[in-house]
Amino acid sequence: MADVVEFELITPAKLLLAEPVEMVVIPGSEGDFGVLPGHAPLISAVRPGTVDIYRGGKVGGRIFVAGGFAEVSPDGCVLLAEEAVAVADIDRPRTEQRLDAARQSLDGAEAGSEEAKTAERRLKVAEAMLAAVEGAAKGREIR
What we know:
41% strand; alpha+beta; 2 domains; five-stranded mixed β-sheet
C-alpha cells in the first residue's frame, strides 16, 4: 500500500489540483470523511464546505467547494466540484454581497418554487463560504 493518496480536484472550468497527499478531508453530504491510502471505494455527494489537504503531517491547504461529488478508491480520490477556491483567496466583502443577494432572491421567491430552491442553494453556499473565511481568520476551521 502506498503512503499517499492521489488527489484530484476538478471544477467545470479546469483541473484545479492533482497531486499526491497524505490525507484529504472532504465535507460529505452525510458528514466529513477522511481519505487515506487504501481507503475503501465509495462515491459521495459533497456539501458546501472546506476540503482540508494534509501534507507533512498537518493541514497544508484548505479549499472551499460549493458542492459536487467525490469518488474514492484505494489509490486515490477525485472530487468533482461545482465551484472551488482556496480559502485564503476568498474575498470577504464579495462573499457578504453574495450572501445578501441570495437572501434577497429567497425573500422574493414563491415558497416551494424552483426559484426558491435555487435561492436556498445559493444561500447555503454563501453561508458556508463565509464560515470558511471566518474560520480561517480565527486560525481554525468552522464546518
